[in-house]
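Working notes for the structural subgroup meeting. M.R. asked for a predicted model of this chain before we commit to crystallization trials. I am recording the input and output together here so anyone reviewing the notebook later can reproduce the run.

Input as submitted:
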Amino acid sequence: MLKKYSILILVLSCNFAVADGIKSLDYFLQNKDTTVNANFTQTVVGLKKNRISSGVMEIKRPNKFRWEYTAEGQIIISDGKTIYIYDKPLAQVTERKLSKALGKSPALLLAGGTDIKKNYNVTNLPNNGGLEWVNLAPKIAADNNGFKSVQIGFKNNTLAQMNFVDSFDTKTVITFTNVKMGQSLNETDFTFTPKAGIDIVNADE
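Returned structure, recorded in token form:
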């Protein structure tokens, strides 16, 4: 009898360990007009050494965002129509129409301008590290912008971490801190005007 109840307790414990990360994701994305800003640390896991960088992320829904890598001098900006990837050390900016990238790159999902379930199969994952997790697997493997899967972790409905695995099985982990929603952000943070002397590359051509 004791063994029977022990098995029942184990089953119940496993059930409770699988939290509803999908609800946390829906809650995070449900307000299409909100803003999100946070600090982030990005770790690309390597065989010999991890590559770590950090910076500031800002989102103004729908479709406007800014990722600024502090030490690398790289800034990624969307003004709602075009994505600009500016590499300051190289004095080069790469431009791409947002319509050709939105929904394919997992990082763009945070901007709330696309239906995640249109491009990804969304499933809950067990709790891990005190976070509620959801897994996003591309429905079309050949149309996933190089990513095999995306995992997003939440704590109390607040964005906490994103894990990516690309087509080369390279894992990237982004941890978010000081996450704030609904604050007033400067519109100029989401605009980019190339200065004289900057090489412009059109990725759509």
